[in-house]
Structures are given as C-alpha cells and as structure tokens.
Amino acid sequence: MSPQTSNKPQTIVDRIRAYRQGDTLPSVVLAAYLETTRSREPEVHAYIDIFEDVASQAERADDLVKEGRFEGMPLLGIPLATKSNILIKGKRATACSKMLENYIAPYDATVIERLRKAGAIFVGSTNMDEFAMGSSTEKSYFGPTHNPHDLARVPGGTSGGSAAAVAMESVPGAIGTDTGGSVRQPASFCGIVGLKPTYGAVSRYGVIAMGSSLDQVGPLAHTVADAEILYDVIRGVDPYDSTTYPDGVYPVVDTKDTYHIGVPRDFLRKGIDPDVLARFEASLEALAKAGHTIVDISLPYMEKGLAAYYITVFAEISSNLARYDGMRYGLHVPGKDLLCDYLETRREGFGKEVRRRILLGAYVLSSGYYDAYYRKAEIVRTLMREELAAAYRDVDIIVTPTVPTPAYKIGEKEDPLSMYLGDIYTVPVNLTGVPALSVPMGTVDRDGKSLPVGIQFIGPHAGEARLFDIGKRFQGEQ
Ligand code: GLN
Fold first, then answer.
1. Which listed CATH number (3.30.930.10, 3.90.1300.10, 3.40.50.2000, 3.40.50.1000) goes with 12-257+409-475?
2. Element at 335 (helix H, strand E)
3. Is the pLDDT of residue 270 over 80?
4. Closest CA to ligand 1's atom 10
5. What is the pLDDT averaged over residues 252-271?
6. How far is the CA of 159 from the centre of ligand 1 (A)?
7. Pairwise CA distance, residues 20 & 457, whole Å
C-alpha cells in the first residue's frame, strides 16, 4: 500500500482533514509511509537514521486523535523527517560528518520542541552535505542521496535528504536548513516547495551552526499551504536565540489582490539554462494573466552576492567549526601531545570541502587580508540590503528562477567553483536576511526524464504571509 491514492501526493492538509473526520489514524498513515520508505529508500538514500520509536510515537498520536485533542496541535499525527544537523534529544546528530558520526544530541532544538508540542511524529534524520556545505548532497560522509525523479542525478543540497524524503512520499513534510539556498535549491530539483524564512524568524538553538549570520531553518513540503503550517509552528521568538525577533519589529507586510512583481532582468542573463529560462518566462506570463503587474528592475549588487557569500560563509565556518577540537564533541584521535590531538582529529574528522572552507575562512579573516576580503564582503552585503530596500519601495515581490539549471548528474560537478555558481539566485536572500519561497514551475526534459524546476518568490523582511499568498495562488493557477 502506498500513501499515494492518485497522482497528486497526499498533503499535510489532507491528512489532518482525514484525522478530524475520523477516516484514518496516524499509525495507519505512518505504516503506509514506512512501506513507501522501505521500497524507495534503498535506491534514493534519503535517510541517515529511521527512528526506532516511530511506531510508539504514532500510537500516542492515535490516542489523541481518538480523543479529538486537536486543539493547539496543528500537526497531530503528521510524520516528518528532519535534517541531521538539527538536535533531537537521544538521537544521533551527525551533520553527516565523520566528526559527529556517533554524537548523541543532549537536548531538543527549539524547532523540534515546537514540532513535538504540535503533535508531529519524527520518522528519521535525513542525509545532507557534511556540515551543510555543498549544493548536491554528494558530500555526505554517508554517501550521496539520489534524486527520486532520476536516480542518476543529485537531489540538490544541502537538505537533499529532506527534499528527497518528501519527493518520494515517505513523509508529507520535512525540515531543512538554508544558509545559501539549502532548502530552496533541493526543493527546486525535487519538485516540491521550500521556504527560507526571514533571518531571525526561526530559532537556531540546537541547530549545528555553519554561518551564523546566514543560517535559517525552513520547511519542505508538497504545497505552499503545507509549508505555511510547518512555518507557523516553528517560527517565533526564542529566549535561547537572541537573534530571533518578536512580532512588531518589522513593519507588517500585507497581502494584496494583485502584486507588483519585480524581475531583475540583468541578473538573469548569465549562465542560465535556456529551458529553465523558458519555464520562468511562461511563469511570468501566468502571473501577468492572473492580474499581477510584472516590472523589470535592476539590482546590480545582487551579482556580487556569490563573491560576498563565499567570503562571509567561509569566515563564519572557520570560526564556528573551531569547536570541533577532539575534546568537546564527537571524534577524538589521540596524537603525541595536545596540539597533535587537535590536528589529527580535525584532519581525520573533516572531509575535503570542509577543510577547504576552514582554510579559506581563516585566510580571509587573517590580519592583512581581513580588509581586502572580509570587510569588503561586509560592505557589499550592506549595499545589497540597501539596494533591496529601495526596490521594495516600487515592487511587492521579486522573482527569479530558484536555480539556473535542473538537477545535474551525480559526479558532474567535481570542480567546487562550478558548483558554487549554481547558488547565484539563492545566496543574496541569505546575505540580506529576507525570506524566499521556492515553488515548482513545471519540468524540463533531459535524457527522457522530466526534471522539476522552481521559481523563487523573494519578499521583504517578515513578508512570509505575502509569499504564502502569491505561492498558493501560483501553485493553484498552474
Ligand atoms: N550551497 C551553499 C554552500 O555551499 C549553501 C549551503 C547551505 O545553504 N547550507 O555554502
């Protein structure tokens, strides 16, 4: 039995309705999802661990559903997958690194606590690029995840396991993290919806840090409505993360009957796949037909985003990953003295991409080079923010394709720079702290397979409601 009854995947909204109507129970729904997982997981490899207590979680949810206790539990009985860099007490939190291969989380991340309170069932932890560095989920210590739409291709990354888990319908929703596109880009490659919330909308407490000024936790799901339900549960101020903001800090961003949608044309010209561009143009036409006004805008600093991102994120990685010293967390490789302990542990515990980034990050922060690189990146970041704020005086939403290409083949992008280029449309969003939503905009054909591609709606700070509104309408209108 598959949880899919027609071609349209069952959504969180569908499941909740069925529970409320007394049509089914969480343990029945979970059993169907686990069946799908058993058949597809061996070829997709979306998961690192499937939790042993998943059945007992579902039984508890059954009791609550039978008692009709839906109040305050918007996710009662909903199975979810979570990325392996998010702490769940008593479970492994590996960040898919050898360094944390056997690291057991001592507490729940705030997002986990909130999802648990809302009634979610945690099915398992998903595969990712080591410490969330990459764009393809090929750089996991546990081996790559395959794209459910074409097993020869990558699912995107770094939340590729979470995206693949949803796309292969082993769960109706999942949680990922997005530092430079890691929720939106795999959503695009896997044909699902992914949200990067406004910086500070969601707590990072209990999330293994990569770039602290860029990281945000975000939902992945089949529909915008489902992503919204997940977001509403995880968002909100948290005393354990001082970068979370309470309501009222940003001006209210309202929804409208029709929007002014800005298209940064110049920014779209370079390196984009012609088929992706064609899908994007068709999407713009659909939006115009639905009554929205499409305007060309110019965002010259956005093009500098990639350079600024890859300096800023390396710098933050080098300082965040200094904590893995062989003493405090995870792996310990004994050397002949304390310094050798550090060196041996870090040499053995980190993969190549992680070591590359730590080295380059230490370099851009070193005296003499700090002004030339890190400070310049910070200046560009400020200019990008100002440029965006000015643009939002004229438009309500900005759109781009989420990624310039469809999913590529596993092993195709060996050269790190060519992989970094794929992040061109997603990183400006993290650098400026605004929210963005990736929604499927159809497919392109490659080698006889239909590969999904996504459109990215970018909102002003705290503009999630507007993104959900346009996203739901776009998804409904396609
Ligand atoms: N691809 C980007 C990087 O490699 C973003 C990764 C992420 O969002 N975690 O840094």
1. 3.90.1300.10
2. none
3. no
4. 133
5. 93
6. 9
7. 33
Nearest atom (ligand 1) to Cα of 181? 8
Task: Give the tens place of pLDDT for each residue, 373-395.
Answer: 999 999 999 999 999 999 999 99
Contact 235, 216 (CB under 8 A): no
pLDDT at 193: 98
For residue 345, how far is the Cα from the chain centroid? 29
**Mean pLDDT over residues 2-29, rounded?**
87
Residues of the chain within CATH 3.90.1300.10 domain(s) are 12-257+409-475
Cα 202 to Cα 189: distance, rounded to the nearest angstrom = 24
Residues in CB range of 137: below 8 A, 6 or more apart: 127, 128, 129, 144, 145, 154, 155, 156, 157, 158, 160, 161, 164, 186
Distance 29 CA to ligand 1 centre (A): 33
Q: How confident is the model at residue 478 (pLDDT cuts 50, 70, 90)?
A: low
SS3 at position 453:
strand
Evaluate: CB of 132 within 6 angstroms of ligand 1.
Answer: yes
Tokens found for residue 413: 């992008």
Residue with CA closest to ligand 1 atom 5? 180
Indicate whether this model's pTM tops 0.90: yes
Q: Which pLDDT belongs to residue 26? A: 98
115, 244, 468 from 252: Cα distances, Å? 25, 17, 15
What would the mean pLDDT of 216-245 be, rounded to a whole number?
98
